[in-house]
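Deviations from the work plan: none for this task. Representative record:
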Amino acid sequence: MTNLLTNPQDVNTNIPPSNSRERAKELVKTLQDKICQGLEEIDGKAKFQEDNWEREEGGGGRTRVISNGGVFEQGGVNFSEVWGDTLPPSILVQRPDAVNQGFYATGTSMVLHPKNPYVPTVHLNYRYFEAGSVWWFAGGADLTPYYPFAEDAIHFHKTLKQACDKHHPEYYPTFKHWCDEYFYLKHRQEARGIGGIFFDYQDNRGQLYAGSDHNGLANQYSQKVGTVSRTWEDLFAFAQSCGDAFLPSYLPIIERRNGMEYGEKERNFQLYRRGRYVEFNLVYDRGTIFGLQTNGRTESILMSLPPEVRWQYCYSPEVGSREAELTEVFLKPQDWANLGNN
Amino acid sequence: MTNLLTNPQDVNTNIPPSNSRERAKELVKTLQDKICQGLEEIDGKAKFQEDNWEREEGGGGRTRVISNGGVFEQGGVNFSEVWGDTLPPSILVQRPDAVNQGFYATGTSMVLHPKNPYVPTVHLNYRYFEAGSVWWFAGGADLTPYYPFAEDAIHFHKTLKQACDKHHPEYYPTFKHWCDEYFYLKHRQEARGIGGIFFDYQDNRGQLYAGSDHNGLANQYSQKVGTVSRTWEDLFAFAQSCGDAFLPSYLPIIERRNGMEYGEKERNFQLYRRGRYVEFNLVYDRGTIFGLQTNGRTESILMSLPPEVRWQYCYSPEVGSREAELTEVFLKPQDWANLGNN
């Protein structure tokens, strides 16, 4: 457990180990391996296809895609490691001390679109940055169900909470809130899913929270959160715990839901809801927009998009239906981890 | 035909008629009516459903949607008239003299997604703005085929060219070029379709061209285009000619293609290509992004999205296929109007 220090700006905590890049890279690359292995086992039918690619400006990646499986209609788990002369403006706004510094970034990102509408779509991303003397960890995981099962939402959040709680009691509530804040479709006034955890810019300087305020949650919350001093090792261990929590947070949900029978109605609703996923990723998601606008590998960036999608003008679910319950209850922030204690 | 004047900044041309807003509104509203009538006739099965809506900050609109028709799987024709205290920053960047001025805007926009993959998707938008002493006309129409038929591309462009040529010989080449420049997916290095015409900020000040340069066409072209003095009446008449050219530019293509038989392969390719339409509209389209970010009526804005869409990781059409011809030949700028003269 990290201690709260009186001086979180302690310069001694600012020194990453000499092999920080290698260790961070191994962390996210190994995570990709572990996740792909676990997913192939539960899928039981399809295998990941791997594409290795290089980035002209420096670095490259390993994209793995699974499709037409026993569980997964389509999914991708990407690893990348990139470097260059300067970070993009979209990041420098938040990290002005990284201006004019060469940078290094490595990460793993994943989106899974199951075939069965009762199995939720899930997203994960863990990444590490260095730019000059600045470094930080970022990432998270969030769940997007198509049908409302409180049991699944509670399990997902409790598993992530346990991983967070091993490191600091403020991590889960802070990063759960940040997740609700980030994965929000302003034009729909709707959350993307039931959330999870999301954190960015976690370094030795102790600011847990750096959210914006597009759904009105941030200001209210950021007042409440103090600073916490962490070393590189603390944050590395935290990122590792979060990454390792993914399979235990998601596989039991697949086991419970993948055998459930569904019809055209449920499939249609799933395809309709997937439209929201597309809207979020193309209109709001920082990583997607940044990647598309800066000559990233388009196919690796857009592997997050669902294989089949539907839009329907002015669709609204029947009053009192499970489809309505999803929007009215599950797509608003709920304290899932503590609901499970009642 | 408008004359080239030695002094295009002539202040006398800057005065719109006293009933300019009413006339512009009637122009685009009547255009909506004429288009809907023509489309219902050719569809033969479905009728437009109309939603009237009001905008809290001032104004409202009339959204019409057709679906599951004999031709149209889904399509929408929107009319709107809005006013307020100040134009959004995205427009003020191009029109600094409209800062701190109340504004009025009216327009008609349309997107049609036919069911048969041999019938192209089509988009049209004509609009008029006033802000203080500044006013301008904008709009255009462009075609997005799924299969390559030179005959259709030539017909579409020639019809628009004839409408433009009645008003000025530089209109068609300038606005055709601007269209190629605007409807471009940088992250795919691909045009959205075979283009058409696109113009913005057409006023009495004579600058025909105000494109940006995201695909490298703009700089090369903007050097070549001079200034042309037009009155409000000139531009009103031009917008009217363009709007009236829509049905003659598109209906003959439907007549030729809608009876053609197709299979699962063609349908799958259509759904895949529709993904590009979604990518363009959500990542690049000014009107869509502006609308979503500024509390527009989401369902009216996103009625442009296709009813069914597919994404497929690293899909590439077979070498030498019609699908490959689309991308390799039709999705690069071509001089369609003059090809038809050979």
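Chain A touches chain B through 33 residues (CB under 8 Å).
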